[in-house]
Amino acid sequence: MKLIIVRHGETLANINKIIQGQLPGELSPNGRLQAGLLAERLKTEPISHIWSSPLARAYETAREIAAFHKIVVDTLPELKERRFGTLEGESFEAYFHALEESGQPFFSFHPPGGESLQGLEERIRPLINKLKVLPPGATILIIAHGIINKIILKVLLEKSFDDWQQIRQDNTCVNILNTNRQTGKLESALLNCTSHLSEPEGPGSQPLKNQNGIHYANLSGLSPVPGPPDH
After folding, report:
1. Does residue 123 lie in a domain region?
2. Residue 97 is a catalytic residue
3. 111-121 pLDDT, tens per residue?
4. How far apart, in Å, are the Cα atoms of 167 and each of 31, 50, 57, 220?
5. Is residue 148 part of a domain?
6. How many domains, in total, are found in the chain?
7. Catalytic residue among 10, 64, 81, 88
8. Is 81 a catalytic residue?
9. Catalytic residue among 8, 110, 145, 196
């Protein structure tokens, strides 16, 4: 089985460093451009299933990709981003302040009305179990969010929260995992790749991030990369 996991395009809230959580989110003009470039990149993939978060920023990205494939996008509530409760719509700084005030480890802290990373992992596990019963030759595409993607990668690649800061997920990044035929486990072929993003042209255009991705085995040699709560 081949598993392709991508993150939605850039949103207005991403630009303004606002916590989105389970708010719908609106793709920025740059985010719509990113989604189109991502769709072009994936148009020749033999995708058999498309699973998307129902939140607007992810579903809009999913529809761009699905336009090249005769597949219905399945929206799965399990793929919604982490719930941040009363902090949704607030700044990243508000989250970090609340985390510090709580005195709890980052993975067990849950904002008022929200969920912790540990709770999120429990929420996503039933979906991960669905992968185990799909045909071996299937190619699954998941379109979700920064934190959700990081949790899925953590579980499938058998990592711990000690690795959390080193797992990056940029807008419209591509992660590819393949099943090892000997062990039956999913292994990373590519992570956080945005090589499909090109430099926009014209006055006032903003540069797009472009990176070739990394293999998870190399992550242990990287410096920790701090990220916002709705990364």
Report:
1. yes
2. no
3. 999 999 999 99
4. 21, 23, 21, 10
5. yes
6. 1
7. 81
8. yes
9. 8
